[in-house]
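Dear colleagues,

For the upcoming journal club I promised to circulate an example of a predicted protein-ligand complex. I picked one with coproporphyrinogen III because it came up in last month's discussion. The inputs are reproduced below in full, followed by the predicted structure.
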Amino acid sequence: MSNEKFLLLRTLNGERAERPPVWFMRQAGRSLPEYRALRERHSMLNLIRTPELAAEVTLQPIERFGFDAAIIFADILNPLMGMGMDLDFHDGKGPIFSNPIRTEADIHQLIVSDPEETVGYTMAALKIVREALDKRGISLIGFCGAPFSLAAYMVEGASTRDGLRVKHLMIDNPEAWGVLQKKLVTYSAQYLAAQVKAGAQCLQIFDSSVGLVTPHQYRTHILPWVKELIGLVRERTDVPVIYFPFNGDGLLADVTTLESTGVSIDWRISLHDASSILNRHRSVPFVLQGNLDPALLCCELRALEEGVAMLLQESAALSVPHIVNLGHGVTPQSSIENIGRAVEMVKAFRYS
Ligand code: CP3
């Protein structure tokens, strides 16, 4: 029996083991019947705020599919309630803030609370999950939203197609933008450090909305704050950090200047091309994560198998360590059979 213990952590540590580790963003959630059963009795926020339930949901995909890592069940947006944002999740409409940031005064009113006090339920859930996973050698991931993506939701009040309001603030009022970003960075760094203290062994920063901006906007108004966040996390913890710039292929030449351990990429660019842009000038290369198209989880099994086989071939040809993941989250329409088959194929694979 080969050693598969903490394969995710070992890979992030630069080790190229016998095979890549596998976990999926949104592996817990509405694709699973056992999650939907719990959701009939509890709201999304209730699940997140009840440590025993959040722990149960986190473990559901581990029990069913045998992923190499668990990601704590929460959302990128619920921690913002600890800054004074009033969040609700509406079925069909997604997250909504009833008090979006619309004026400078709104920014000044945001509180940088102590996340241990305001969102301590996630730390309590992490403790339960870590205890359950440690003896099995399964790694535990904590996370937060990146400061730009959080600001996009706070300013727009909900998901946005064009990001007009958040760009208006960022471009036309850089001073107020800086105040908002600073608060988000300070709060998020504390939140991530608290997650590590509670048992998270690795952290992922989701920059889900960054595909809205130009490379120049990214470089000027966004990247410096991601750098500051990663710098603060590095000062306070010693765990690996993965940065996920969703839909950000055009930004990779700038992403290469970050001090994260890994970068997660979507399906719009090949692993090979992403690695050559990201790792060209680096002495310590980024670990790459990705990048299966989540749509394949909703297609015929044959198509999924072809997609996974191709990804594993690409993985074998890479010169840097690789983590198998999707290019974005599991969708609710995904086939359970396909998810299971994808995990099985990765776990049966060996680098020759
Ligand atoms: O990956 C995981 O399994 C961990 C849990 C997790 C959730 N959201 C649970 C969730 C994580 C890491 C997130 C991150 C998140 N949340 C992001 C970044 C990743 C991405 O998708 O780009 C973003 C942008 C959000 C904001 C968010 N939360 C939206 C837009 C929505 C509505 C869309 C949807 O899928 O319903 C959510 C709700 C949400 N977050 C659900 C889950 C399981 C569905 C809630 C439900 O109805 O049960």
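Two points we might discuss: The chain has one domain: 23-291. The domain at 23-291 is CATH 3.20.20.210 (TIM Barrel).

See you all on Thursday,
B. R.
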